[in-house]
Amino acid sequence: ELAARADRLEKYMQQHRVPLHLRRRVNAFVDALQKAKGDSSAAIANTAPSDALAASPLPHTLRARVCVAVRLPVLKRCPIFESCPEAIKRALALHLTPETYAAGDLVVQYGDHGDAMHFLTRGTVEVVGEDGRTIYATLDAGSFFGEGALFSNVRRAASIRCACFSECLALSRADLQHRLRAFGFPQRRLLDEFTTIRRRNADVNAAISRNLKEAERAGSRLRRVLGDVSLRLSTKRQTSVVQRFRSFLGQRLARGTSGRALWDALSAGAVLYEALIVPYRAAFTLPDALPRVVPGAMAPDYACDAFFLLSLMCRCAMKDEDEQRQSRGNLTEVLDAHCAGARYRRSRWLWLDVL
Q1: Which of 336, 157, 173, 354 is nearest to 239 (CA)?
Q2: Mean pLDDT over residues 109-121, rounded?
Q3: How many other C-beta atoms can be found within 10 angstroms of the C-beta atom of residue 124?
Q4: Least reliable range by pLDDT among 50-54, 223-227, 326-330
Q5: Half-sphere CA count of 245, side-chain side, radius 13 A
Q6: pLDDT band for position 353 (50/70/90)?
Q7: What is the residue-averaged pLDDT of the chain?
Q8: Burial (CB count <10 Å: 0-12, 13-18, 19+), residue 200
Q9: For residues 25 and 12, what is the distance between their CA atoms, to the nearest angstrom?
Q10: What distance in Å separates the CA atoms of residue 92 and residue 174, rounded to the nearest whole number?
């Protein structure tokens, strides 16, 4: 029982990318506990089996450290808490309540009085209207919703329905107010941040609505610029495919992933091959024998060249998954100038890789 829970805890830390030094400390404690055994297995028998962290045999201090390491980035991605000190964010991270929902479950019901904000950590949810059929938007992992309930007892303006198995972290208004009072931080500052973000989003939505109405008017300049409707839809589909490809690169080839490790290993192997084969051919291949060598022996060279070009294209097109999550959570768009590919194109590493 103890070994099985330790395995679930290890998978939990790997999935949430807990820092290596903290994972080593946790594993050292678990190893010591497995050696001691005794009454420790009975002590953890009554813990909740649904949560890997809650079911872990860790003491309160280590469990709190892992909890903060996993949940603190969720709060940091929310612009409402940007003005909060680090200590308040860590305290709030300890009071986030994990919630699990099946497909079709309602996280938020239209018209109910809200008392908590939710951070979507896994799955996809739909913003549904009062009739239960109109879908206004779709939110993915990294988004947040219901932030207005932290500052007033307002009714929910829409329902949030899970499109698949989803997990959320809930922050209640009472926990927020209690932590802010404990640290002497004025809640008015958070309210000002929330008001500014809501006003900015309202301005963006109003501008989009005006542009859409202008585009629908026959003979308008905007319609002439946009062109035919079919062309716009085709461009939108192409853009969507490109964005999905860039998101795939940012997710699969990000630092610390197995895909990035394989990519770096292939790059190192290709560089090593080129570094060895060129002087070898220069030293041991006679000029008159070179034409007979080219058809078969040059195939690996061509493969390495193709891999280098593909690697450069992927690095230039990569987009950070974290930045995309932030853009969805803020309901604003992160410009391409701030993505990983743009930073790479502006750095000296691009020219070194080209060389």
Answers
A1: 336
A2: 90
A3: 16
A4: 326-330
A5: 12
A6: confident
A7: 75
A8: middle
A9: 15
A10: 11
- Angle at CA 57, nearest 5°, toward 51 and 61? 95
Q: What separation in angstroms does the CA of 225 have from each of 64, 218, 219, 220, 254?
A: 55, 12, 10, 9, 37
Query: Bridge partners of 126?
Result: 138, 161
Do residues 260 and 268 touch, judged by C-beta distance below 8 A? no
CB atoms within 10 A of CB 194: 16
- What contacts 24+ positions apart, CB below 8 Å, involve 266-275? 266/307, 267/307, 267/311, 270/304, 270/307, 270/308, 273/300, 273/304, 274/301, 274/304
Count other Cβ atoms within 10 Å, centred on residue 10. Answer: 17
In this structure, are residues 29 and 58 in contact, taking their beta carbons and an 8 Å threshold? yes
Integer Cα distance of 69 and 331 in angstroms: 25
Least confident of 20-24, 29-33, 45-49: 45-49
* DSSP, residue by residue, 43-86: HTTTS-TT-TTTTS---HHHHHHHHHHHHHHHHHT-GGGTTS-H
Whether residue 29 is predicted with pLDDT greater than 80 in this model: the reply is no
Upper half-sphere CA count for residue 264 (Cβ side, 13 Å): 10
Q: Please write the tens of the pLDDT for every residue from 267-287.
A: 888 888 888 887 877 777 656
Asked whether the CA dihedral 119, 201, 174, 163 is positive or negative, the reply is negative
Query: Could you tell me the CA-to-CA distances from 155 to 25, 113, 134, 138, 144 in Å, in that order?
Result: 45, 4, 19, 21, 17
- pLDDT of 162 over the 50 cut: yes
Which token pair is 117? 């904000």
- The model's confidence at residue 42, banded by pLDDT at 50, 70 and 90, is very low
d(CA 106, CA 335): 33
Query: Which H or E run contains 106?
Result: strand 106-108
Task: Give the span between the Cα atoms of 72 and 87, in whole angstroms.
Answer: 11
Burial annotation 224-234 (CB, 10 A radius, 16+ → b, else e): eeeeeeeeeee
Overall average pLDDT of the 157-171 stretch: 89
How would you classify the pairing of strands 144-145 and 97-101?
unpaired
